[in-house]
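@here heads up, posting the sequence + SMILES for the PH2 run so it's all in one place. Ping me if the SMILES looks off, I pulled it from an old spreadsheet.
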Amino acid sequence: MKIYLSLGANLGNRGETLREALRQIACLPQTALKAVAPFYETAPWGNQEQPAFINTAAMVETELSPLNFLHKTQQIELDLGRVRHEHWGARTIDIDFLWAEGVASDTEELKLPHPYLTERAFVLLPLRDIAPDLLLQGRAVADWCREEKIQQQEIHPAAELCEPYPLSMIACVDEQMGIGRQGKLLVHHAEDMQHFRQETLGQVVIMGRKTLESLPDGKPLRGRVNIVLSRSLVRDDVLICRNLAELWALLGRLQVEQPRRKFICIGGGEIYSLLLPYAKEIMLTKVTGKFAADTFFPAHEEFFEAAREARSGLSFVRLWRAGADYFSPRR
Ligand SMILES: Nc1ncnc2c1ncn2[C@@H]1O[C@H](COP(=O)(O)OP(=O)(O)OP(=O)(O)O)[C@@H](O)[C@H]1O
Ligand SMILES: Nc1nc2c(c(=O)[nH]1)N=C(CO)CN2
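bot reply: prediction finished. Complex structure tokens:
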């Protein structure tokens, strides 16, 4: 069954809370996350004495019953720290059911379609991004969005990543998943250098301090936006993020500037481990042999092999996170 959801947050790290909620929804049993709308910054509706919200919409396909699915999303709300609960008031996270295929319900616990579905721009505009033709009371979502009372409500694209898994990773590994020894790559393979260049050129690369220092002359990579995750580094030829919250804020701004750029993590070991939970794609170059590495690429059982190409004695493997094949329209 298809279910459309509305998600909102106006306390804490709003964007990351929404992405975490989406990741948890994508992991629910018998459920696939199929579409996620861009995130919007929205003025509070109802009680206006509260901070602005970030809102989005999502579509899942689930074999769970609507009530069972509702209980699961309520548990996710609790896990993400939703404590205070006043009607139409501030919240860390709110997950509302908007519409479920073939289901009408009018109990206290579950009202479907959602009673205010056609009243609120923060619900309708994200929904239009993923389901413009969905019929609500006989009218398409895109048509509802043209209503004057919807047009008057304050809502703007948010400078936020909307994809729950926004990152790619690229690495060259030996047979033991080793990536380096004593701060250096295990092998230098011209074909792999060419592949790395091709995959990263024009994109945004994210690395740790040690990886930056291991680049030729310790300089940033040309033709790419270089981001370094480091608590202490000070220099002005790269963008520096002190923690993940700063990284998400920076990537959100970069995505607004140029929506089609990829965010590619290029290492090293600690940064791969830190960022793997947010990756949807891994590009691994596999080298035959064992090179006594002291640094390794982390375990990644939640990924499956989507493509493989053998060239010049190397295997170029593309892995994809299971369940991360959702659609996310670009603005
Ligand atoms: N379509 C629905 N989606 C989510 N919760 C619903 C729905 N219909 C009824 N409920 C019930 O509403 C309660 C949650 O209400 P909540 O306080 O989140 O509403 P609200 O978000 O403040 O208001 P609104 O639903 O108008 O946005 C839960 O107990 C839930 O069982
Ligand atoms: N902009 C905006 N306003 C709201 C929201 C929300 O998600 N976005 N949720 C509310 C509780 O239902 C009340 N008001």
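MO: The chain is about 25% helix and 30% strand.
MO: One more: The longest helix spans residues 66-79.
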